[in-house]
Write a structure and sequence with these properties.
Bmt2/SAMTOR; 4 strands; single chain; 4-stranded mixed beta sheet; alpha+beta
Amino acid sequence: MTMHIPSVSERFNLISCSLVLNFVPTPKGRGDMLIRMTKFLTDNTDSDLPSILFLVLPLPCVSNSRYCDNDHLDKIMSNLGFEKIKYQEAKKVSYWLWKWNGTKQFNEYFKASKKELHKGGSRNNFCIVID
């Protein structure tokens, strides 16, 4: 995550994050990456076009994780100022289309910790931490 934060005029209306977030090595790094994405999107007040995040994760990240599921991801994204437009599951991946509602919807006090949501020895450890 060394790319510089763009100025307001350099921001994007669309970010495609396809099978990237799951390769960030730490749960905190994943949370930091989601927060950082908001700094690359245009604020709705700056543009007539909506700011969109297309996110793709392996399906097991939300269907078979101890620490993350679709509801938990929805809560994280909502607190970062995103509104879910569309969700689709395929055989092996999950797709989301999120609209970012700008900084006015960003909850800077929100925390997401590594908390076990689902028990089971066969579950994976995918997790997103925001502190």
